[in-house]
Each structure stands twice: as structure tokens, then as C-alpha cells.
Design brief:
Blueprint lengths: L7 E7 L28 H18 L7 E7 L10 H4 L5 H4 L7 E4 L15 E8 L3 E2 L8 H14 L13 E9 L5 E2 L2 E9 L6 H8 L1
Parallel strand pairs: 1-2, 1-3
Antiparallel strand pairs: 4-8, 5-7, 6-8
């Protein structure tokens, strides 16, 4: 039971997963019949950790420990939404309001091949839009938004953040989605792309956003 005189350790695993991909070689919603291996969407990231965290929490629930044990099953980890861990630790969240005790430590459970990790990168997702002018491709009219976006993406690829984390290295940045055009003979007037940024403790999200702007 919770003891206000003790510190609190949280076991945190996320219940959401990335969407299934067309390249999957198995049915992503079939766990299979193998008694030793569970297949399927989210079984590794982060279903195995969810089950293990629940089992550990239940096992030690009535055991006297030198600390309180808390179980957090969070959502929106894969997309960094407002209803996940960010909500718990926000100014209006249950920890700040005193509704729940704020944990002193958190064991964030994720697939690491059973190797303990001391830190984890954050996440910043940017949506970029390049604006051009539509025209007919045969006549070479317009301003190609796709080419503008390619120049922007090349600048992003070449950018390096000066501060390097001793534990995690450089901030990682990847353009992961791009969309433009409606027909082969029309110069696109808009091109949208998505940037996946993985910050370290050397930067907060606003610093990275301002630097890239």
C-alpha cells in the first residue's frame, strides 16, 4: 500500500503501437499458435513490456518494499499526443494537482534486448509545407513546390545541432513522409512533408523548433 513517507518508483509501459505495414510477412492481428513466441502488432513494442510491468506490479503489490510501486500504462507514446505521459506530468495533471503521488523514479519499459538503458530520446514531429504555383508540365509553367520542398529537405539533412549528448550523441532528424501532385502533367503547387526529430537532454523541443525555423 502507498506510504507517503517513502519514495515512489513507477513502472511505465505504453499500450499504443505503430500501424501495420504492407510489408509485414505475417497477419499483424494473429498472435500465432507458438507456445514460446507471441507474434502480431505491438507484441514486442510495447505489449511484452505491458504484460511484464503488470505481472511485476501484481507480484509485489502486497510485498513490503523500501519504496512505493506505481504502474503507469500510458498511451500516445508513438505519436507524442497530449493525452499520454505529457498529461501526467503537465501543470494541470494528476501529479501536479496532488491527485496522484509524483514518482521519484520511473522505469520506462521498452524493447532493448534486455539491456538496461539510462536515458531515452524525446520526440518532436514537424509538418512542413512548400508552396509553389501550378502549371502545365508540357509547357514548363508554374513553380514546382516539390523542388522547393527538396531544397528544404536537403537543408534539413545537412543541419547539425551543436550540442552533443554524452549519453545519446547527436540529435537525430529524419524526413519520413512526403506528398505532392495530383497528375503526371501538372506542376504541383503544394508539397507536404513530415520531419521526425529525436532530441536529447541537450535541447528542449522549443529550442529545436526555433533553430530549424
Amino acid at each position: 500500500r502507498f506510504d507517503p513517507g517513502k519514495r515512489t518508483l513507477a513502472l511505465d509501459a505504453h499500450i499504443d503501437t505503430v500501424p501495420a505495414a504492407d510489408s509485414y510477412t505475417r497477419d499483424p492481428h494473429d498472435p500465432g499458435t507458438d507456445r514460446d513466441i507471441v507474434y502480431g502488432l505491438g507484441s514486442n513494442d510495447d505489449g511484452g513490456c505491458v504484460v511484464s510491468s503488470i505481472a511485476g506490479f501484481r507480484h509485489f503489490f502486497d510485498t513490503p518494499l523500501p519504496f512505493n510501486l506505481m504502474l503507469i500504462l500510458s498511451c500516445e507514446e508513438e505519436r507524442s499526443g497530449p493525452g499520454g505521459s505529457r498529461l501526467l506530468f503537465s501543470e494541470n495533471g494528476p501529479f501536479a494537482s496532488g491527485e496522484l503521488p509524483r514518482p521519484h523514479w520511473a522505469l520506462v519499459c521498452a524493447p532493448t534486448s534486455l539491456k538496461a538503458a539510462t536515458s531515452e530520446r524525446g520526440l518532436l514531429v514537424l509538418d512542413g509545407t512548400a508552396q509553389g504555383v501550378s502549371g502545365h508540365a508540357a509547357r514548363g509553367e508554374g513553380v514546382n513546390a516539390l523542388y522547393i520542398a527538396m531544397d528544404d529537405i536537403q537543408r534539413l539533412r545537412a543541419h547539425r545541432f551543436a550540442r552533443v549528448s554524452p549519453a545519446m550523441g547527436e540529435v537525430k532528424l529524419n524526413v519520413t513522409c512526403i506528398s505532392a501532385g495530383s497528375a503526371h502533367n501538372v506542376i504541383p503547387d503544394e508539397c507536404c512533408f513530415t520531419v521526425d526529430v529525436r532530441p536529447t537532454e541537450q535541447y528542449d523541443n522549443l529550442e529545436i523548433l526555433n533553430e530549424l525555423q
